[in-house]
Automatic annotation (TrEMBL):
Record InterPro entries: Epimerase_deHydtase, NAD(P)-bd_dom_sf, NAD(P)_dehydrat-like
Domain NAD-dependent epimerase/dehydratase intervals: 16-246
Keywords: Oxidoreductase
GO biological-process terms attached to the record: lignin biosynthetic process
CDD domains, A to Z: FR_SDR_e
Record GO terms (molecular function): oxidoreductase activity, acting on the CH-OH group of donors, NAD or NADP as acceptor
Protein name in UniProt: NAD-dependent epimerase/dehydratase domain-containing protein
SUPFAM superfamilies named among the record's database cross-references: NAD(P)-binding Rossmann-fold domains
Origin superkingdom: Eukaryota
Listed Gene3D superfamilies: NAD(P)-binding Rossmann-like Domain (3.40.50.720)
A Pfam family: Epimerase
Keyword Oxidoreductase part of the UniProt annotation: yes
Keyword Transmembrane in record: no
């Protein structure tokens, strides 16, 4: 990479576009790009919608942020949004198991790649998901999850995990189209991503925290999930964009936790919330955490946030935005020993 002063000058001259700019991850990508001095163009289906107002309050937004109307199924709107851009961060995607939305994710991604190539974009960062990596019942427990792993499409389809199907197909489509068009593509594969929100509305992954805090989830599954702080996921996006030798997939896995351990952390920080201690399927052996490797991202310099800190700051944000009540005794943050 270039030295700091020349890198700053280069960023100030670069225009980059973020699809889905008003969403949970997209908003943080915009914030980090502005912080690093880039000129940013964000896309949304309706830029004037109140759910995007928070973007205009970000530091640097007045001078270096513009919003454009764009739809991933409308190639002309994408080409207009990407005009003059050096790079594109394709974050937008329907987060749903609705099978009818699969074409939006897959064809929309093809459209993004082709529109970027049409407009001379040099580099595209695509946000995938670990649902495209770990959903494979035939994987050996000794397998280390890394960039070479893929979910089993038929298994995802049979179990109704159409979001995973869509993201797998979208990532493959992006790779195929980028290769065909000669566009530099890098893929970031985040897991369950939680953390403080910039947007006012509650996103799906942070609802995962809310449902346990509020006691609406009466029992937890005998299951393991991988979590990451949204700020780490966003730093991963910027690292793979700015390291021009970066290519291919980069898994961004913070911590693998059995749900009981996840709730233990949450309960230790906020003991006055009615967090369940009942396990579904406790007649079976406890599922072991996955083994995984972040080596490719670590080689680029990414360090991961302690999950206790992430959970603490997530809940404080949820309280401040009115998604959960202030009914707890807040415990001082201490680094977890899990």
């Amino acid at each position: 990479m270039a030295n700091n002063s020349s890198a700053e000058k280069q960023r100030a001259q670069e225009l980059v576009c973020v699809t889905g700019a008003g969403g949970f991850i997209g908003s943080w990508v915009v914030k980090e790009l502005l912080h690093r001095g880039y000129r940013v163009r964000g896309t949304a289906r309706d830029p004037a919608d109140r759910k995007n107002v928070h973007l205009q309050t970000l530091e640097g937004a007045d001078e270096r942020l513009s919003l454009r109307r764009a739809d991933v199924l409308d190639c002309d709107s994408l080409r207009a949004a990407f005009d003059g851009c050096h790079g594109v961060f394709h974050v937008a995607s329907p987060v749903s198991n609705d099978v009818e939305l699969m074409p939006v994710a897959v064809e929309g991604t093809r459209n993004v790649v082709n529109a970027a190539a049409d407009m001379g974009v040099r580099r595209l960062v695509f946000t995938s998901t670990y649902g495209a990596v770990h959903m494979n019942p035939n994987r050996s427990p000794d397998t280390v999850l890394d960039e070479t792993c893929w979910s089993d499409y038929e298994f995802c389809k049979q179990t109704g995990n159409f979001y995973c199907c869509a993201k797998m197909m979208a990532e493959m489509a992006a790779t195929e189209e980028a290769t065909r068009r000669g566009l530099q593509l890098v893929v970031v594969v985040p897991p369950m991503t939680i953390g403080p929100m910039l947007q006012p509305s509650l996103n799906g992954s942070n609802y995962h925290v809310v449902k346990y805090l509020m006691g609406t989830k009466k029992a937890y599954p005998n299951a393991v999930a991988i979590y990451a702080d949204v700020r780490d996921v966003v730093r991963a996006h910027l690292l793979v964009y700015e390291h021009h030798h970066a290519h291919g997939r980069y898994v961004c896995f913070g911590t693998a936790l059995h749900r009981s351990c996840f709730l233990q952390l949450l309960r230790g920080l906020f003991p006055r919330y009615p967090i369940t201690s009942k396990c579904q399927g406790n007649d079976k052996p406890m599922v072991s955490p996955y083994r995984f490797s972040n080596q490719r991202l670590e080689d680029l310099g990414l360090e991961f946030t302690d999950m206790t800190k992430t959970l603490y700051e997530t809940v404080i944000c949820l309280q401040q935005k009115g998604h959960v009540p202030y009914q707890c005794l807040i415990m001082p943050y201490r680094r977890s020993s899990l």
